[in-house]
Amino acid sequence: MEFLHHLQIQASQSGNATGSNWVHSSGEKIESFSPVNGQLIGAVAEADEESYEKIIQQAQEAFLIWRNWPAPRRGEIVRQVGEALRKEKDALGRLVSYEMGKSLQEGWGEVQEMIDICDFAVGLSRQLYGLTMQSERPAHRMYEQWHPLGIVGIISAFNFPVAVWAWNSALAWICGNVTVWKPSEKTPLCSVAVQQIIARVFEQNQVPEGVNCLVQGGRTVGEKISRDHRIPLVSATGSTRMGKALAATVAARLGKSILELGGNNAVIVSKDADLSMALIGCVFGAVGTAGQRCTSTRRLIIHQSVYERFQQQLIKAYQQLKIGNPLDASNHVGPLIDQAAVDQYLQAIERCKESGGKMLVEGGVLSGPGYESGCYVKPCVAAVHPNMEIVQQETFAPILYIMPYQELEEAISIQNAVPQGLSSSIITLNLREAETFLGVNGSDCGIANVNIGTSGAEIGGAFGGEKETGGGRESGSDSWKAYMRRQTNTINWGSQLPLAQGIQFTITD
Ligand code: NAD
Description:
509 residues, alpha/beta, Aldehyde Dehydrogenase, Chain A, domain 1, Aldehyde Dehydrogenase, Chain A, domain 2, 2 domains, seven-stranded mixed beta sheet, five-stranded parallel beta sheet, 38% helix, binds nicotinamide-adenine-dinucleotide
C-alpha cells in the first residue's frame, strides 16, 4: 500500500480544512473501510459546529480577495492543479480504487477526468463571455456580464469520490468562487488526499486560505450546508431521495442548487444493431464499477427479432466475467461499497423474482479467499416486464433487466416510462431509427447516445439529466453559467434620458 504512504494518508486525520490548514474538530469519528478487503484505511472527524463556522468564515474572507484576481490568473492556478494531478495520477487512482472499490483502470480514469476538466477550465477562464445587445434607446449601450456567486457548496456521492468534486471546483474557481466540499462519508480519505495535493499548488501561488475548503460528515453536515444562507449555490450529487430533501431546503431560502441524482438508464438494441458492438457496450455499462455508476446500464430493451440471440450472447459474456480485487487488472468486477449496498442488491433480486422476473444469470454474494469483505456480488440478468415496480427504481448494483419490444415507438416509450432521466442509448445502424431516438419524440434523458452505451461521458459535454435525476448540468459546454450571476448593464452615454418603451415622464421646474 505504498500509495497510502505516498499520499500521506495516516490512520487518523482531521479531514476538515480551510485549504492548507487542517481545522481541529471534536466531531464524531468517521472510519473508512476498504470494500476491497474490509481493512480499516483511516478515519476523519465529522465537522462540529465550531470547525464548520471557522471554515465557512474563512471561505467568506477568501472570496473577497479571490474574486478580484483576473479570471485568466485563476485559470493559471487551475492549470497547475491539473499538472499536480498528472503527477499524482497513479497514487490517487489507486486510492480511489481501494477506498471506493472500482477497478484500477476506472480509478485512474477518474483522475484523468479531473485533469481534463482542469484543462477545460483553463481555456474557459478566458472565455466567460457575456452578450452585447442592441438598445432600443439612442446613445445607449446594453450588455451582460457574469460575476461570481460566492461560496459554492459541493456535496458528492461515494461512487465518484474525486471526479465530481473536480467538475465543480475547477469551474467554480475560474468563475471566481470559493468552494466548500463535503465528500461522501463513505470515501473521506480520497478527499483528504485531494486536499493535500491542491494545498501544495495553492500555497506555492499564495492563493488565499479559504478558496478550497473541506468539511467531513454525513447527512447532518449536508443539511447544514443546504440551510446555510452564506452558501448561494449548492451542487449536490447523490440519490434522488437526498436531492428532493436538499432541493426543498435550498429553495426555501431561495438559494440555487445543481442536482445530479439517480439514473435508470436503458439501451435500446435494435433489429438493425451491430450486435457485437451492442454486447460490449451493454455488458460494460451494466457491470462496470459493479453497477455503481449513475450512468450504469440497468435496462436493455431488445427488438423481438434479436431477443433470443442477444440473450444467449449476454449469458455467455456474463459467464466469462472475473470478479475480484479491483486493483488486479485482470478482474472485470470489483466489490459493492458496503454491506448495506449488498443487502439492497439481494432485496432487489428477491423483489424481481417475487413480481415475476425470471433470472437468466443468477446473482449471489461471493465468499471465501479474496472475498473476505463480504461486498463481492455476482452481476446478474433478469427477464422482466417493463412495468414491474423494481424495474422503475435505481438499484445501485450490477442487476440488468432485459425486455423485448416490437416497434421503435414502443421501445422509446418503455425507455422514457421511468421516473429518472439521466442517460440513454440506441444501438442501430439505421439512420431513421437513430434520428427518431434523438428527436423531439425520442429519449427524454439529459444524455442520449447512438452506438455507444449509457455509461461514461466526456467532460466536454454538459452532464446531467431530467425528471428525478434533478435537471442539473455540470462539466462542459456552458455549464459554467450556473456558477455565476448574470448582470444586465445599460449605459446611457448621451445627453438625454429617454425611458424604455417610449414612456414620457416630464417634470417642470
Ligand atoms: P447519497 O444520496 O446517499 O449521498 C450523497 C451525498 O449526499 C453524501 O455526501 C451524503 O452525505 C449527502 N446527503 C445525504 N442525505 C443528505 C441530505 N438530506 N441533505 C444533504 N446532504 C445529504 O448517495 P450515494 O449512495 O453516496 O451515491 C449514489 C447515488 O448517487 C446514486 O443514486 C447515483 O445515481 C447518484 N449519482 C448521481 C450522479 C449524477 O451525476 N447524476 C453521479 C454520481 C452518483
